């Protein structure tokens, strides 16, 4: 499992930002920036849509005021779903990271098997990344939502 001090691997993902989608290497997306990245089991799912993403949408400017350059939301969904979810959630200040094949999630060692819910998904977590190196990692226990919230991450900055 990825740990504090580890470098983000060079794995291709799709980034959805400003209404545009681009293929990019995760390490390049995060290079030279202070990033708060949070991950969740799936777009349009109950806790993810009611609490997790909305917390970051509402508090985005507070993160930027504390020196964060990029807020990224990662999910094992395709770029089309992530774009639709961003539009539905008014998440224009959040970069949506579509990890459709779960390659980055698996490289992190943070995948889970949700069975018939959707197969391989990401565990819920949040991390602070500085110039592609993990400086903080808050991993949720299964079916929990506490340590990866926007409020919890703001307290670290």
Secondary-structure topology with pairs:
Elements: E1 12-17, E2 20-25, H1 26-30, E3 34-39, H2 46-65, E4 70-75, H3 79-88, E5 95-98, H4 103-108, E6 111-113, E7 120-122, E8 125-130, E9 133-139, H5 150-156
Parallel strand pairs: 3-4, 4-5
Antiparallel strand pairs: 1-2, 1-5, 3-8, 6-7, 8-9
Can you put this structure into words, describing what you see?
Strand 4, helix 3 and strand 5 (95-98) form a beta-alpha-beta unit. The radius of gyration is 14 Å and the shape is globular. The chain has helices spanning 26-30, 46-65, 79-88, 103-108, 150-156; strands at 12-17, 20-25, 34-39, 70-75, 95-98, 111-113, 120-122, 125-130, 133-139. The model has no long low-confidence stretch (mean pLDDT 94). The chain contains 5 helices and 9 strands, in the order ββαβαβαβαββββα. The protein is 31% helix and 30% strand. It has one domain (12-156): Glutaredoxin. Strands 2-1-5-4-3-8-9 form a 7-stranded mixed sheet. Strands 6-7 form a two-stranded antiparallel sheet. It is α+β, with helices and mostly antiparallel strands and 157 residues long.
